[in-house]
């Protein structure tokens, strides 16, 4: 095995031990609609995709490159899911992805990186891709989050009423707000202001 292949294998093994998000499990457990197609928006290294594929979904994960959080997310996912016929990995952004009809759309810790100026249109495309009875699960960022004003990336920060307004065509299953000091995944102190939402699309 050459050095590059060995490194890939090491990296893959480390990443594949990362668990899927509890919000994804909550959403999948409540998904009663017939369409067993899922989209993982800003999939990162694919933990949620792996979980949904394991549940029998046909999964469309996508992510943008380059992005410093996961600069090789798509390469990693292509490697990770290369032998899964039910997983179709794409390089794409929230704004450009061609959303297929889906029963489940996941956007964990990702959608707040969407381009704010076109977010209304992006959100319409996401909501319209969900079949009636389909479920959206994901996170949004509030204005009091440290990243809302001081991130290397443009953040699509939304007030609570703006997040609620996105779900007028949905029934909310779970809506929680986190507004407290905490840590990043790399252990740095940071104030978090986020909303976690799981909602069912009405017909
Ligand atoms: C914090 S990571 C979360 C990854 C994954 N959803 C998870 O929960 O592990 C945010 C992800 O959003 C992706 N991302 C950022 N901007 C994006 C965009 N405009 N379109 C698609 N993905 C984007 C990043 O590349 C990164 O993989």
Automatic annotation (TrEMBL):
Membrane as UniProt keyword: no
GO biological process: methylation
Pfam families attached to this UniProt entry: Methyltransf_25
Domain of life: Bacteria
Stretches of the chain forming a coiled coil according to its record: none
GO molecular function annotation: methyltransferase activity
Signal sequence segment: none
Gene3D superfamilies per UniProt: Vaccinia Virus protein VP39 (3.40.50.150)
Domain Methyltransferase: 39-134
Record keywords, A-Z: Methyltransferase, Transferase
Keyword set includes Transferase: yes
InterPro entries associated with the record: Methyltransf_25, SAM-dependent_MTases_sf
Protein name, UniProt field: Class I SAM-dependent methyltransferase
């Amino acid at each position: 095995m050459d050095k590059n292949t060995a490194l890939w294998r090491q990296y893959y093994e480390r990443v594949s031990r990362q668990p899927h998000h509890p919000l994804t499990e909550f959403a999948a457990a409540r998904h009663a609609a017939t369409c067993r197609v899922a989209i993982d928006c800003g999939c990162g290294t694919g933990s949620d995709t792996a979980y949904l594929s394991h549940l029998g979904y046909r999964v469309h994960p996508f992510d943008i490159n380059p992005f410093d959080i996961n600069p090789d997310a798509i390469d990693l996912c292509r490697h990770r899911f290369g032998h899964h016929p039910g997983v179709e990995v794409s390089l794409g952004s929230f704004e450009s992805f061609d959303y297929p009809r889906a029963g489940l759309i996941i956007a964990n810790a990702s959608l707040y990186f969407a381009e704010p100026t076109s977010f209304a249109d992006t959100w319409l495309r996401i909501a319209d891709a969900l079949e009636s009875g389909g479920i959206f699960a994901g996170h949004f960022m509030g204005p009091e989050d440290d990243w809302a004003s001081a991130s290397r990336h443009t953040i699509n920060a939304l007030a609570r009423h703006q997040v609620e307004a996105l779900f007028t065509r949905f029934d909310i299953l779970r809506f929680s707000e986190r507004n407290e000091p905490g840590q990043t995944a790399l252990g740095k102190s940071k104030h978090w202001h986020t909303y976690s939402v799981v909602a069912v699309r009405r017909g």
